[in-house]
């Protein structure tokens, strides 16, 4: 690339991140501390004027974004959720230094996630919408150690024992 000089650079969210008017936007980065994010998010969501919060993360921060959302759903019962995954497209334009070469456009796609949490019911027609119910979160006080049966129920029948595992599902819109 010694024959090219870097020109303009643009970033485009595909699709655009979820947002609602009046929602608090939490941008999670790889260097963000979960304790700091959760402290701010919990204090703002405890305010009665704030009804919605969006969590946005890209690249290596996606797992941290999901962790923050799951912690919030465990602490605040009855939240409604819509999840959207996509990418952050970075378009770099390179101009030639030598005559006879064409301009280049380099696209880099970085994975991204956007999660909207709301105290109010959201669009139930959206395939990625879900509600954290109190029955799915009722096991929050149990230990999560090795061999723990947290989140599972044991039912015994005449011929043997059947273990039913309760897992909260998260539907993601692609």
UniProtKB/TrEMBL annotation:
Residues 128-156 have a biased composition (Low complexity). It is found in: Nucleus. Residues 124-156 are annotated as: Disordered. InterPro entries: Alba-like_dom_sf, Alba-like_NAB, DNA/RNA-bd_Alba-like. GO terms for biological process: tRNA 5'-leader removal. Pfam families: Alba (PF01918). Its main location: nucleus. The keyword Nucleus applies. Keywords: Nucleus. This is Ribonuclease P protein subunit p25-like protein.
């Amino acid at each position: 690339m010694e024959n090219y000089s870097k020109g303009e650079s643009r970033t485009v969210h595909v699709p655009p991140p979820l947002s609602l008017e009046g929602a608090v936007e939490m941008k999670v980065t790889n260097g963000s501390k979960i304790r700091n994010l959760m402290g701010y998010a919990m204090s703002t969501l405890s305010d009665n004027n704030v009804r919605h919060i969006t969590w946005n993360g890209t690249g290596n921060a996606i797992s941290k974004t999901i962790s923050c959302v799951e912690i919030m759903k465990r602490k605040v019962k009855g939240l409604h959720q819509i999840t959207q995954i996509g990418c952050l497209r970075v378009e770099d334009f390179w101009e030639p230094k030598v005559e006879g070469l064409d301009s280049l456009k380099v696209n880099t796609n970085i994975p991204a996630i956007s999660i909207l949490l709301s105290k109010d019911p959201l669009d139930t027609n959206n395939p990625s919408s879900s509600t954290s119910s109190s029955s799915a979160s009722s096991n929050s006080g149990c230990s999560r150690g090795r061999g723990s049966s947290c989140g599972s129920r044991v039912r015994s029948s005449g011929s043997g024992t059947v273990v039913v595992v309760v897992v909260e599902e998260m539907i993601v819109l692609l």
